[in-house]
Automatic annotation (TrEMBL), chains A, B:
This is pyridoxal 5'-phosphate synthase. SUPFAM superfamilies: FMN-binding split barrel. Residues 6-98 form the Pyridoxamine 5'-phosphate oxidase Alr4036 family FMN-binding domain. Pathway: Cofactor metabolism; pyridoxal 5'-phosphate salvage; pyridoxal 5'-phosphate from pyridoxine 5'-phosphate: step 1/1; Cofactor metabolism; pyridoxal 5'-phosphate salvage; pyridoxal 5'-phosphate from pyridoxamine 5'-phosphate: step 1/1. Its EC number is 1.4.3.5. It comes from Durio zibethinus (Durian). GO terms for molecular function: FMN binding; pyridoxamine phosphate oxidase activity. It holds the Pfam family Pyridox_oxase_2. Its cofactor is FMN. Keywords: Flavoprotein, FMN, Oxidoreductase. PANTHER family: PYRIDOXINE-5-PHOSPHATE OXIDASE (PTHR10851), PYRIDOXINE_PYRIDOXAMINE 5'-PHOSPHATE OXIDASE 2 (PTHR10851:SF3). GO terms for biological process: pyridoxine biosynthetic process.
Amino acid sequence: MGTVTAPWKQLLLNALESNSHLKHSSFFQLATVGYNGRPSNRTVVFRGFQENSDSFQINTDSRSHKIEELKHCPFAEICWYFTDSWEQFRIGGRIDVIDGSNPDTLKIQQREKSWFASSVKSRLQYLGPNPGLPFISEQLNEETSLDPSAGPVGAFCLLVLDPDQVDYLNLKNNQRVKFISTIRSDGMKSWTSEMINP
Amino acid sequence: MGTVTAPWKQLLLNALESNSHLKHSSFFQLATVGYNGRPSNRTVVFRGFQENSDSFQINTDSRSHKIEELKHCPFAEICWYFTDSWEQFRIGGRIDVIDGSNPDTLKIQQREKSWFASSVKSRLQYLGPNPGLPFISEQLNEETSLDPSAGPVGAFCLLVLDPDQVDYLNLKNNQRVKFISTIRSDGMKSWTSEMINP
């Protein structure tokens, strides 16, 4: 789907730039809804925008709970607070779960690209034991090694969040702007914005 | 409800202590579920534990969306990432919404206590225009003042999250522990813990 440049994107790029001296500035909290209807919330790492789009990329383990949750309810909300510039972005949208079984060649290529864009150390996590399952100390001793030229392993999963609303709050000047997307008749996504009370 | 001292509480108190030099260490992200079944996520401020309990206090505006959402689905998950010690707490539980119309005298007292515990500047927010509604510039000129001895205004709302599960992750030593509560036959809450894979 085509996209007219999103008006909130420059605000976010500016925040990333002004907080780039902080390692945690690329971390945000991702909320999903569980099977039981209760919300889940965890910290994940921003892996950049999908090429030529406003969609957010996140790498995750296909064995983690959030994958089941997203298959049940594909909607998520990012809450991204920048601790130095005091800016918050709440980004709501639908998540596309791209694992190795995806039938779309282009998506499989994006997953591969995201795998190679992450460090070898990050990639090793996906060879580890099933996240969230009981820890068995023997597993620690299994030394895992990885060929840096090898493609994504089965557990590696790319999440792509396509935003449809963004709520921006600046705590320094106390301004808040709400951005809402609509799909135009030509299939392009367009954005409207409105200043709202903080 | 009585509570045996929660085993995760000391870990959290330690994290608060070791990150206390950072203003944002008392901020966490609170996820709820909206009417439309989609998750919501925003940054809020930790206002301490409720006296003699493991319940988390949060102040909020009764006119904000989260109040409607919590009336529809009272469950929430806190995601609290400590940026200096690299520790994450995911705290799930049920939220009690305490506004001025609450029939329980003890809860009304807790709300009042939380009002006076917050700064006069914080209290002034609750006299401002309806959060989330379109911003009208004239509202800015209305100088609001507040008698510091005056009790909570109508828009002031205390949220109390009573946790039933805590997922603790330490990214420095890569340890993760899951704490689950159960209600014992004598009505006391008790906690079990298990090391799980990160």
